[in-house]
Amino acid sequence: MATQELYIRNATDTEARGPFSGQQIADLAEAGQVTGETLTYDATTEQWVAISANPELMAVVFPEKKKLGLKAKEIKTLNTSDADAKPITVTDMLDAAAGRTADTKDKSDPEVDMMRAAKVGMIGAIVALVAAAAAEILPSTDALISMDPAKLLAAPLVLVGLADLGLAVLLGLGMTTLYPLVRFRAALGFGLMGFMFFVQGMPTALIAVAAGSAGLYLSTVFVTLVPVLLAVVAGVGGMGMLAWQLLGN
After folding, report:
1. Can you tell me the distance from the alpha carbon of 35 to that of 10, in angstroms, rounded to the nearest whole number?
2. Between 36 and 180, whose confidence is greater?
3. I want to staple 157 with a disulfide (CB 3.0 to 4.6 A). Which of 78, 111, 136, 153 is the partner?
């Protein structure tokens, strides 16, 4: 934990700081820059959690201090002042603690880029699910409004659409732990709707659902920006084309 690279931010911050080692965060805590409520990014759960919720990190950042009795001793310093030395500012100290130098502080942080790509993927998955729900529900709104079991059984895609809409809402609330369920829906949806469109002789709809399902699945997998953008384009474009195709018919 002392050598692990960590990223931190306050609850009101939009940008993260890091990478820090556990000892560097402890130094910032000693200076009053970090508290137990400061958030740290957990790559395993893809969530921001308070330092106080991580006992191991708390032990490093806020160790229990032992009381020591020290004898007064005269300390002689060997340091000499340099009239040409540039004053060290608070910004310089924070940059040094964050591991940023004059050569690297303007470069993008890979972990921050990863989080941004994950955010783009989540938004893309939400839009793709909403488009899929529109394609599945709107052509059969009469069956949904009537709540007639016979009509609902004749339009099974309505139930899939309601599930897609529910997943979109939950993802919008930040529940990224549902990603495995979204991937399962992408695979199952492609198998179900792909078979239906193949049997009905609808090649355009088949291609659209294949692209949309693949894009939806990969939007929750990739964590680098370019692949995520390609997945989002495929997911949103495919599901949008499917909605246009089904509503047009």
Report:
1. 9
2. 180
3. 136
Both tokens assigned to 63:
């160790």
* Residue-range domains of the chain with CATH: 1-64+88-107 (3.30.1490), 110-248 (no CATH)
Q: Tell me the C-alpha distance between 118 and 175, whole Å.
A: 13
Residue 92 has pLDDT above 60, yes or no: yes
Sequence-ordered list of residues with C-beta below 8 angstroms from that of 29, at least 6 positions apart, any chain: 35, 61, 62
Q: What tens digit of pLDDT does each residue of 151-200 get?
A: 666 566 777 788 888 999 999 998 889 899 999 988 987 888 888 888 88
What is the rounded distance in angstroms from the CA atom of residue 236 to the CA atom of residue 149?
31
Q: What is the mean pLDDT of the chain?
A: 78
Q: How far apart are the first and last CA of the chain?
A: 59
Alpha-helical (H) ranges within the chain are 22-30, 55-61, 90-97, 110-137, 141-146, 149-154, 157-172, 179-199, 203-219, 225-248
